[in-house]
Amino acid sequence: MGIIEAKKLSHDYQKIGEDGSVEAIYRAVDGVDLDVAPGQFIAILGHNGSGKSTLAKHLNAILLPSEGTVFVDGMDTGDADKLEAIRQTAGMVFQNPDNQIIGTVVDEDVAFGPENMGVPTEEILARVENSLKTVGMWEYRSHSPNRLSGGQKQRVAIAGVVAMEPKCIVLDEPTAMLDPVGRKEVIRAAQKLNREKGITIILITHYMEEVIEADRVIVMDQGKILMQGTPREVFSRVDELKEHRLDVPQVTMLAYELRKSGLDIPEGILTIRELADALGKAGQECR
Amino acid sequence: MIRDITIGQYYPADSVIHRLDPRTKLVGTLVFIFSLFLFRSFAAYAVATICLAGVIRASKVPFKFMVKGLKSILILLMITVVFNMFLTPGEPLFKIWKLTITQEGVLQAAFMAIRLTYLIIGSSVMTLTTTPNQLTDGMEKGLRPLNKLHVPVHEVAMMMSIALRFIPILLEETDKIMKAQMARGADFENGGLLQKAKSMVPLLVPLFISAFRRASDLAMAMEARGYHGGGGRTKMKPLKYQKRDHMAYLAMMLYLLAMYAAKRITGF
Q1: For B110-123, what is each residue's pLDDT tens digit?
Q2: 3-state SS string over A135-155?
Q3: Are A94 and B165 a contacting pair at CB < 8 A?
Q4: pTM for this model (two decimals)
């Protein structure tokens, strides 16, 4: 059984009119099936309004399904008794770094989760040190979060989740408000956690560049899963992605255009290195 | 920069007073204030002066920071003194026009002036040597018995510390909105008081909306990290009384005894 399993998950948002009656229902997630194996790095891609953030909020019971079920490590998110255990298993990092830091000092914020769980003092100190070192923010432990850059704040937020020792971390567009440098820092921290600690990562984003190293990419559109597979599989379907107004990484786009105009290079090229190699090969064959 | 402002008036230094447990400092300040009102005698106030001077020396905070707080109550102080002097009934000292100054009045005015001044200086010593965070921590732990009376001590302390964290963020946001409005021709500087107040409306509306949005985000983030109120929580840095705190409590007792003795012995 996977660490996260969603079965026919649907979620409706209701618009309540002034008289308290339901004026309109908007289905944000529509019949999604999801099965994530432990230790995987999953990326969920999609436009604004594709339902990807709504899906993410189901994975640690912030939202509950309107229809269908979600299991986190075998626990049903609808089961109110398991709420604490679920939130401990699946941690969550949000988009806005300012609005998720609670402490007035970095280490106090990282300690917030373990404090809620009732972890003994000495262990909190050990966990805080460990998780701040993992994300490379240990030197900033006594700083005020207000003076950190966006990428640093987001890494503190990740450390705060890591200190709860979850099996899975859901990152809900963690890089949307960051500059390119900050984006790289955050993605690198997530990859490190996945590789070194074996934590399952579910990264939700609309930056294509961030997903090329994922084990599996899930593309969502209008509340449904549009396609899924390895990054290579997904990005070889350039036409389909473009139909749904989704971008592909620049390199992939270039390779696609070159291929279309008759150059003999493989489909689904993801990195500059790959494209360079393919072009070199194609060039030799031409001679 | 607007984000560099400090909240409260903490003066960072490495002194015995700074290292004391915030609870000790809270209790100490209260004891000091009570003693001022309990022992109405010049001899006792002399003891208080010596002790206060000693604590200020030990705190390593320059004296001018202590006096800063007095500026704001200067007018209140003067009104108190004048009213006490003229309106206390008793043995008339001398007369100006229709107003009589009495002997009791002069004494009463002097006591009130000393009390108010020392009250401000005494609490300044506490706020200058304790960070706002330590203060909320100290209050949370020190007031815990009030939980039995259904006072939500933990919740209030949590709200205070969140407010402290968001003050600089909201200030920065105000600055941003103000600049955006100014870029579109809004005028925050000219005009009378009414005009200025009116020009604040387009500033406050977006600020409030954004504050509510932030609050909702923060609540979600706190829930996601397993926050469920004060029950069953542990602390990374729990407050623990050290030897110096016990010494401080002993000093407070001695201080009260000295005040009492000074009043009884001299009777003045």
Answers
A1: 888 999 899 888 88
A2: CCCHHHCCCCHHHCCHHHHHH
A3: no
A4: 0.80
